[in-house]
Amino acid sequence: QVHLVESGGGLVQPGGSLILSCAASGSVFSMGWYRQAPGKERELVASITTDGISNYADSVKGRFTISRDVAKNTAWLQMNSLKPEDTAVYYCTVRTWSAPNTDSWGQGTQVTVSS
Question: Who has greater pLDDT, 63 or 101?
Protein backbone atom coordinates (compact mmCIF):
# COMPACT_ATOMS: atom_id res chain seq x y z
CA GLN A 1 0.00 0.00 0.00
CA VAL A 2 1.31 3.41 -0.96
CA HIS A 3 1.76 5.98 1.79
CA LEU A 4 1.67 9.66 0.84
CA VAL A 5 2.74 12.68 2.87
CA GLU A 6 1.62 16.04 1.54
CA SER A 7 2.68 19.51 2.60
CA GLY A 8 2.25 23.07 1.47
CA GLY A 9 -0.87 24.98 0.61
CA GLY A 10 -2.52 27.78 2.52
CA LEU A 11 -3.85 31.26 1.85
CA VAL A 12 -2.30 33.53 -0.76
CA GLN A 13 -3.31 36.72 -2.53
CA PRO A 14 -4.10 36.72 -6.25
CA GLY A 15 -0.90 36.79 -8.25
CA GLY A 16 1.03 35.08 -5.48
CA SER A 17 2.83 31.76 -5.38
CA LEU A 18 2.67 28.55 -3.40
CA ILE A 19 4.45 25.24 -3.57
CA LEU A 20 3.02 21.85 -2.74
CA SER A 21 5.09 18.77 -2.04
CA CYS A 22 4.27 15.10 -1.90
CA ALA A 23 6.46 12.24 -0.70
CA ALA A 24 5.48 8.68 -1.50
CA SER A 25 6.52 5.20 -0.47
CA GLY A 26 6.74 2.25 -2.82
CA SER A 27 7.78 1.83 -6.43
CA VAL A 28 6.19 4.87 -8.00
CA PHE A 29 5.56 5.24 -11.72
CA SER A 30 3.85 8.62 -11.86
CA MET A 31 2.98 11.40 -9.45
CA GLY A 32 0.62 14.32 -9.75
CA TRP A 33 -2.07 16.48 -8.31
CA TYR A 34 -5.80 16.72 -8.74
CA ARG A 35 -7.93 19.48 -7.29
CA GLN A 36 -11.54 19.84 -6.31
CA ALA A 37 -13.33 23.11 -5.74
CA PRO A 38 -16.67 23.32 -3.90
CA GLY A 39 -19.48 22.15 -6.13
CA LYS A 40 -17.13 21.04 -8.88
CA GLU A 41 -15.74 17.72 -10.02
CA ARG A 42 -12.21 16.68 -9.21
CA GLU A 43 -9.85 17.58 -12.07
CA LEU A 44 -6.29 16.74 -13.00
CA VAL A 45 -3.91 19.64 -12.45
CA ALA A 46 -0.57 18.15 -13.41
CA SER A 47 1.27 14.85 -13.50
CA ILE A 48 4.78 13.63 -14.16
CA THR A 49 6.21 10.20 -14.93
CA THR A 50 9.50 8.60 -13.98
CA ASP A 51 10.83 9.63 -17.39
CA GLY A 52 9.98 13.24 -16.66
CA ILE A 53 7.03 13.42 -19.04
CA SER A 54 4.64 16.00 -17.64
CA ASN A 55 1.04 16.84 -18.35
CA TYR A 56 -0.91 19.94 -17.35
CA ALA A 57 -4.48 21.10 -17.34
CA ASP A 58 -4.97 23.90 -19.87
CA SER A 59 -6.05 26.22 -17.08
CA VAL A 60 -2.66 26.04 -15.35
CA LYS A 61 -0.24 25.82 -18.27
CA GLY A 62 2.42 28.50 -18.04
CA ARG A 63 1.65 29.15 -14.37
CA PHE A 64 2.23 25.82 -12.63
CA THR A 65 5.30 23.61 -12.85
CA ILE A 66 5.53 20.04 -11.64
CA SER A 67 8.87 18.48 -10.81
CA ARG A 68 10.04 15.27 -9.26
CA ASP A 69 12.99 13.64 -7.51
CA VAL A 70 12.69 10.03 -8.63
CA ALA A 71 15.23 8.72 -6.10
CA LYS A 72 13.31 10.30 -3.22
CA ASN A 73 9.84 9.58 -4.61
CA THR A 74 9.02 13.21 -4.02
CA ALA A 75 7.21 15.66 -6.28
CA TRP A 76 6.58 19.37 -6.09
CA LEU A 77 3.99 21.60 -7.66
CA GLN A 78 5.15 25.19 -8.02
CA MET A 79 2.11 27.40 -8.47
CA ASN A 80 2.67 30.95 -9.69
CA SER A 81 0.33 33.75 -10.72
CA LEU A 82 -2.40 32.20 -8.66
CA LYS A 83 -5.99 33.16 -9.36
CA PRO A 84 -9.10 32.95 -7.20
CA GLU A 85 -10.35 30.16 -9.45
CA ASP A 86 -7.36 28.06 -8.35
CA THR A 87 -8.94 27.82 -4.92
CA ALA A 88 -9.55 24.16 -4.17
CA VAL A 89 -8.42 21.17 -2.18
CA TYR A 90 -5.38 19.75 -3.92
CA TYR A 91 -4.78 16.00 -3.74
CA CYS A 92 -1.50 14.31 -4.44
CA THR A 93 -1.91 11.12 -6.42
CA VAL A 94 0.54 8.41 -7.42
CA ARG A 95 0.56 5.30 -9.54
CA THR A 96 2.92 2.43 -8.93
CA TRP A 97 4.64 0.10 -11.37
CA SER A 98 2.63 -2.79 -9.93
CA ALA A 99 -0.66 -0.96 -10.46
CA PRO A 100 -0.06 1.67 -13.18
CA ASN A 101 -3.79 2.23 -13.77
CA THR A 102 -4.74 2.71 -10.12
CA ASP A 103 -4.49 6.02 -8.30
CA SER A 104 -3.49 6.24 -4.66
CA TRP A 105 -4.57 9.48 -2.98
CA GLY A 106 -3.17 11.78 -0.36
CA GLN A 107 -5.30 13.43 2.30
CA GLY A 108 -5.51 16.71 0.40
CA THR A 109 -4.40 20.22 1.23
CA GLN A 110 -6.38 23.44 0.97
CA VAL A 111 -5.24 26.20 -1.36
CA THR A 112 -7.14 29.47 -1.05
CA VAL A 113 -6.47 32.41 -3.34
CA SER A 114 -8.14 35.51 -2.02
CA SER A 115 -7.45 39.15 -1.29
Answer: 63
